[in-house]
Amino acid sequence: MSASADTGAPLMEVRDLHVHFPIRRGLLRRQTGTVRAVDGVSFDLHRGETLGLVGESGCGKLTTGLAMLRLLDPTAGRVLFAGRDVASLGERELRASRRHMQMVFQDPYSSLNPRMTVGSIIVEPLAVHRIGTPAERRDRVAELMRLVGLDPSFINRYPHEFSGGQRQRVGLARALATGPALIVADEPISALDVSIQAQVVNLMADLKGKLGLTYLMVSHDLSMVRYLSDRVAVMYLGRIVEIGGRDAVFDTPLHPYTRALLSAIPTPDPRRERGRRRIVLKGDVPSPANPPGGCRFHPRCPIATAECRTTDPVLRVIAAPSGPSPPHWVACHHA
């Protein structure tokens, strides 16, 4: 199975990805269980597209992104970047591949070293990968600062001298330093003031167009995901339950969990807001250390049947692509 956007060769292919963490207890730290943070995720990511990965906290979104970059080692599965399996690369090969895969972290206040100047932070990836001469690196840092909307004269300032939005721009400049093809962005605007969130979102959209970037956008902010993404994948308890084109997922959601998520998006129109029907799910998210049998969503699903409690649904195509539209996949017996 491959939930892909088109028939061209994908930049990244994730195949049956598992990331499990052992639960250890007692004086001897014996393993007594396993947290199945990511439990069989597969999708493709094509050059120049943005895939939004959404879901509740703890569903495995960020763990998926970290495993794609090999910042976490997968338990099982394959992660192919430009045809090479990232999960099986040695240390030297992995370091070389990381030049083409970068990350923008959620918190701009903790992701920048407070003891380093902005110039040192941005130039560090160039030094690590031995790109250019010292003079070329200085020119590249000034170019990157202008690209993300910062004055190059700030090069010798420290992170504490910048606002949150400016720090996130520094994080973007650092990620762009080596000329990557793929950027994994973890909640890139959630730690920022509302007044500057739109500026960072528009900057990321502009950079994608100028540089031909490919994004994996991990986010709770469904409005931002709809604005930036070409496709949207919805995760629940370690698995993808729906994936398809942005408009298809937002306008005609097929999985009951997706419908519940979208019903929580507030609207600025008071009349529409008063008439909007919220879908309130019962119960809590089950523990990833002990997921329910059958469909993992069935304990909270308003349309669950006996089949849902016993049979695990597979991710299948419900709507075949028409023209440039990507296929619409869903893991639900009743879709």
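The record above closes out task 2.4. Task 2.5 opens with a second protein, given below.
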Amino acid sequence: MKETSLFAAVDLGSNAFRMMIGQPVKRDRRLCIQEVKTLREPVRLAEGFQGKTLDTLALERGWLALERFGKRLRHFDAGHVRAVATSAVRDADNSALFLAGAEERLGFPIDVITGHQEAHLVYAGVAQALDCAQSTRLVVDIGGGSTELIIGQGNRPLLAESLAIGSGTFGQRFFSGGYVNSYSLQEAERVAGLQFERVARRYRELGWQQAIGSSGTARMLAKVLKANGLNDYGQGGITYAGLLRLSVRLLEVGRVDHLRMLGLQPHKVSTLPGGLAVMLAVFKVFGIDRMSPSEPGLRLGLLHGLMSEA
């Protein structure tokens, strides 16, 4: 396949760096994106914070990942690649140092996007994968360092917020060393809940018919709940009852690396307690009973933007 027909989106997240390569196809007179390849590097950038500065190991993990991505993108046209950095790079005092080395290794510019820009890209990606029905959706994207909340109708976002709450940052703050007890889990959920309550009223006023989780956190939780039969009546997706049962399992072992559950990948273990606490707070504050996971999100939104402009 010729590189000139391909587009690539690179997402420098707080937990992992990901790259999605796709090509445009027409289906029913509508521009769609056909995935060609997806790469993931568990960089854990947010774990490398010393105060507000990324430490040397975090910088090197990020640079090595982008060097590998850069080799794959060597023959791509400049207008066919977009790379964005999110919460961890936004918040780092030494982001300029990181970005200089990152762009050199990737071979393309990297945009540091705001939380609101991230939210709109997430919604654009989710909307591309769903039908254009005019039902109202709440999209929740729990990342490593931030959580985006978007209500939209069809392809149009109506309300978007980005909060500094993430599975990685909450994991470090409340579950140091991977230890989990009832106090730390309740405290993490309480603190996240207070942040969500600041914006919840406007979301409740708009309302929604469907809740969608677009992040790696949502996909991980849905996979674990289903594989271990933790949802009621074999339901798929994420349910509040399932999250509570997963909490009990986690509290029983007391340390996340002692947890043995089907569907839990080794590279996801460290982010589980923080992601679980944040998701519990989302369900409680917004009164959600069930959430559907979505594979598409930020990267699909980036690709759609690139292809629309080409």
